[in-house]
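Justification of resources, computational component.

The compute hours requested in this renewal are based largely on the per-chain cost of generating structure records like the one below. Each record pairs the submitted sequence with a full structure-token output. That output is archived, and it is also reused by downstream analysis tasks.
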Amino acid sequence: MLQDPILSAIYIYPVKSCRGISLNSARLDTWGLECDRRWMVVDANGYFLTQRQLPRMALVETALNSEALCLNAPNMPELRLPLSTEVADEASVRVWRDCCQAVDQGNEASEWFSSFLGVSCRLVRMPKNFVRPVDRDYAPQDAQVSFADGFPLLIISEASLSELNSHLQKPIPMNRFRPNLVVTGCEAFSEDSWHTIQICSAIFYGVKRCRRCVITTVDQATGSRGKEPLVTLATFRRVSDGIIFGQNLVHAGVGELQVGNTIEVLKVESPVK
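The structure output for this chain reads:
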């Protein structure tokens, strides 16, 4: 008898496209995992910046405690941003085609990121009352998303990464794909067909296999860019709209997730090619 998959890792990325944090447990709120992609770096026009343009963002370490978001980077002083206060200046920013409300995090944060990244930029935070709906073409549920690209959660199985690494000359770690939830105990690419799953009391819906971009070619430890794994993925994971790896999720309900939770697969559905 097959065993249910197990949640083997949880990650959040407080500042979009900066280094993530591995957690043993995380609270699930309206937007996804608490504190995931709630801050974002934008250019002078308010357009979001990521490792697509600035692979050096991979070197910005993030940490959270009860009082502050703490940021560190090579040859930079630590930047601490209190969680209890939001800088008053409001801003209008863009993530792809979505116009979002944001709260500017002040000149110190702007100067810190501008100095390290070598471009004029500002750090913004998503206000607590902002509603950014997911793309209704894929997720008719009443779901929201923070500053993530399009959906609140990304799930990938360890077996999928192992299968990819079996095709690569040099294996790569899971952090190249920046998932929120990692699972073990299933076959490679099983997550592609997960239409509905349950973890504790929360229900999750698989809405769109994740189309992968150049960020996967950035070594998250060094910030250097190569060609893999996209070249190899293209040989066996290409579909009509791109190269896919992992499944985007929306969720119904809030609560606490913990590493070791059982994942109950309630419904499977053949992926659309």
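The mean pLDDT is 95. Residues 107-117 form the longest helix (11 residues).
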